[in-house]
Q: What sequence folds into this?
């Protein structure tokens, strides 16, 4: 390992940039974006909630699904590490979605949890990813772990449409407690100028965390290789 | 020497079995083991009956009528007692490494999965055949005309539960958590099954037209088709080394 | 240099391994093994614990995928599909039996998996060869360790495989069992089957062998025709190799 390599690992510019961007988003959202008329200050949680949801559901989960399929095909341990890293980072973002959602819901719906379809589906996704990571932790052999994880990743991908479908059907076919549905929320230009760049901030943070976690997995595997070689 | 010659004769007219006949051989073997020991079936049955009674006392009968409660009870108990049976499915193969003999035999990996799944399906149907009447009895359900339709839904649900559960059972036995992992992995997958089956049976029991249950029935059918195919296809990846 | 081409002339070798490697992580359990065993030949394989004998056997049986190299059985790559496994029988240190089923049911089940027409008769014959026919209807769980081993061997030979892989088959066998096994293996070999026999007992191994090999750290460190090799001399050579 060269010195440059080490110093590069010492300072992670991507992760730093990600955190800086999200911090900037917070500052802008809290102090420089107008308060929404209907929902009041609670609406500001949207800048964190919707963006995290996008990252968790589409980026993290999508990457895990693609890496799982590709692993069974190509058998490259790198792909397994990508799946592992995106699952773990995805779990963090899903947790953010699941905490910010109810926090917003309390003043708007009058309850932390109202079995909102999207939140319910996200909760199930959280269970699935948690189960995935628990299973990973319970398998000693690296190759078995990678294979099983890929299989579970594929199965989970197939399940997600069913979860969404049934959760939405359950909602539409049952009169749920009346909740305020702020669907057609109009955003002022000011708000949009916070909302849209917010996505980029979170994507940057996701990329930083993912790369960080991936490197950690690579190092761990290298250490194991060295131990086994002895 | 005579015996040896005879055996050689057998070896020459062999044709190794097709996917389905090998699967059936394995299923019959599993059922023979279950019939011999009966442990899993009896415990699943007692568990189901216990569940039926405990659920009754967990609700306020003056607030929730039994007929509203019954579909939920039925499906929650089906899934949980099915897990009891699925637990043991691959444990049998692991005890003395019998799995190695299956993998070394001239049969497709898919046969192993299908054979295990068939045995598990019959197991779950057996448990359902006990649970359904006992829920009807304890909860005073007007089964009447809906019994046939209800049994059909139970069968569809069992197919989905077994398809996914058999795959996960084969994975769970090879992990450190073993029995703990199976419910954790499979319950989120059972969610669409439980939801649609409960919706269908609630409508059937309250005498609503079958057409109202159709959207949910479609979900159940789609689930079965997708996961029977997908699990058969990915199973070989869980047993190769 | 071990002689790697010992096949019968003009015949497809029963087992043909070429540069087999199987790594677990970074460690190669089998590290470049090539060998050829022809019909009617028996390779006795010796080696200390952890030398890779069991891994090699599992590679030949198709239970493990090689990291590199190939293994052909009767000319067919063993990992090429179900049909390639039809002519292989395997005895390992685990019994591979179902303890709740009787001896006959276990062997009959195996016979069915190999597509034998009269599975029951074949099962009884195999049990007869291993001298456990009188216990055919006893559940395996109430048989002694040695009798279980006999049933396990009956399970492995029920389809008269042309390739028989035995990993420590003598473990737990009493005198009757050992004799029955030796006789069965000898008869199989005489009728044209190829045998691969892993054992710690050099005398037992050499008694049946046409070839002998010593495995250490994943490779064959000695590989020769049995010929006039004297068991005592071989045993001391083995000890010298393993100790050194």
A:
């Amino acid at each position: 390992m060269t010195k440059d390599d080490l110093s590069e690992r010492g300072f992670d510019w991507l992760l730093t940039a990600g955190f800086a961007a999200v911090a900037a988003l917070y500052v802008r959202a809290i102090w420089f974006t107008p308060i929404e008329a209907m929902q009041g200050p609670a609406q500001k949680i949207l800048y964190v909630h919707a963006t995290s949801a996008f990252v968790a559901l589409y980026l993290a989960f999508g990457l895990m699904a693609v890496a799982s399929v590709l692993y069974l095909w190509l058998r490259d341990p790198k792909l397994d590490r990508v799946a592992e890293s995106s699952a773990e980072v995805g779990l963090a973002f899903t947790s953010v979605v699941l905490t910010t959602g109810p926090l917003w819901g309390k003043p708007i719906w009058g309850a932390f949890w109202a079995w909102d379809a999207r939140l319910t589906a996200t909760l199930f996704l959280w269970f699935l990813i948690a189960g995935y990571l628990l299973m990973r932790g319970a398998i000693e052999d690296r190759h078995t772990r990678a294979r099983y994880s890929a299989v579970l990743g594929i199965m989970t991908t197939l399940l997600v449409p069913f979860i969404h479908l049934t959760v939405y059907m359950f909602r539409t076919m049952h009169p749920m407690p009346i909740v305020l549905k702020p669907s057609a929320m109009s955003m002022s230009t000011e708000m949009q100028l916070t909302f849209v760049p917010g996505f980029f901030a979170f994507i940057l943070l996701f990329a930083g965390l993912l790369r960080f976690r991936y490197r950690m997995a690579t190092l761990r595997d290298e250490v194991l290789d060295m131990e086994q070689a002895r | 020497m005579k015996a040896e010659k005879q055996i050689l004769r057998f070896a020459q007219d062999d044709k190794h079995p097709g996917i389905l006949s090998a699967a059936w051989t394995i299923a019959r073997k599993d059922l023979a083991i279950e019939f011999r020991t009966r442990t899993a079936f009896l415990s699943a049955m007692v568990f189901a009956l216990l569940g039926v009674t405990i659920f009754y006392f967990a609700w306020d009968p003056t607030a929730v009528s039994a007929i509203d409660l019954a579909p939920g009870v039925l499906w929650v108990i089906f899934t949980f007692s099915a897990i009891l049976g699925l637990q043991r499915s691959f444990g049998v193969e692991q005890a003395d490494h019998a799995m190695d003999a299956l993998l070394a035999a001239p049969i497709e990996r898919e046969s192993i999965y299908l054979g295990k799944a068939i045995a598990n399906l019959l197991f779950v149907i057996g448990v359902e055949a006990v649970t359904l009447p006992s829920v009807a009895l304890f909860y005073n359900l007007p089964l009447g005309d809906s019994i046939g339709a209800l049994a059909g839904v139970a069968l569809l649900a069992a197919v989905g539960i077994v398809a996914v559960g058999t795959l996960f059972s084969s994975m769970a036995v090879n992990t450190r958590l073993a029995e703990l992992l199976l419910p954790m992995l499979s319950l989120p997958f059972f969610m669409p099954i439980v939801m649609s089956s409960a919706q269908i049976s609630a409508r059937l029991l309250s005498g609503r037209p079958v057409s109202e249950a159709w959207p949910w029935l479609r979900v159940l059918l789609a689930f079965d088709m997708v996961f029977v195919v997908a699990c058969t296809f990915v199973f070989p990846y869980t047993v190769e080394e | 240099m071990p002689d790697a081409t010992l096949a019968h002339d003009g015949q497809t070798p029963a087992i043909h391994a070429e540069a087999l490697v199987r790594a677990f992580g970074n460690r190669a359990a089998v590290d470049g093994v090539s060998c050829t065993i022809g019909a009617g030949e028996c390779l006795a394989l010796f080696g200390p614990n952890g030398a890779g004998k069991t891994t090699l056997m599992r590679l030949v049986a198709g239970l493990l995928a090689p990291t590199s190299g190939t293994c052909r059985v009767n000319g067919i790559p063993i990992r090429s599909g179900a049909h390639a496994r039809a002519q292989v029988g395997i005895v390992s240190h685990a019994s591979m039996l179902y303890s709740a089923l009787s001896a006959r049911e276990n062997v009959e089940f195996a016979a069915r998996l190999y597509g034998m027409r009269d599975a029951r008769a074949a099962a009884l014959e195999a049990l007869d060869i291993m001298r456990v026919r009188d216990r055919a209807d006893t559940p395996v769980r109430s048989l002694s360790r040695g009798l279980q081993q006999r049933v396990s061997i009956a399970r492995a030979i029920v389809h008269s495989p042309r390739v028989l892989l035995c990993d420590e088959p003598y473990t737990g066998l009493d005198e009757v069992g050992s004799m029955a096994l030796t006789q069965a293996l000898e008869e199989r070999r005489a009728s044209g089957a190829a045998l691969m026999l892993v054992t710690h007992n050099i005398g037992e191994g050499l008694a049946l062998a046409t070839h002998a090999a010593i495995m250490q750290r994943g490779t064959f460190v000695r590989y020769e025709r049995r010929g006039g090799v004297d068991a005592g001399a071989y045993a001391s050579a083995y000890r010298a190799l393993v100790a050194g």
Remarks:
- Helices of chain C lie at 53-61, 103-113, 119-129, 145-157, 175-190, 202-208, 231-243.
- DSSP finds seven helices and ten strands in chain C.
- Residues 5 and 64 of chain C are 24 Å apart (CA to CA).
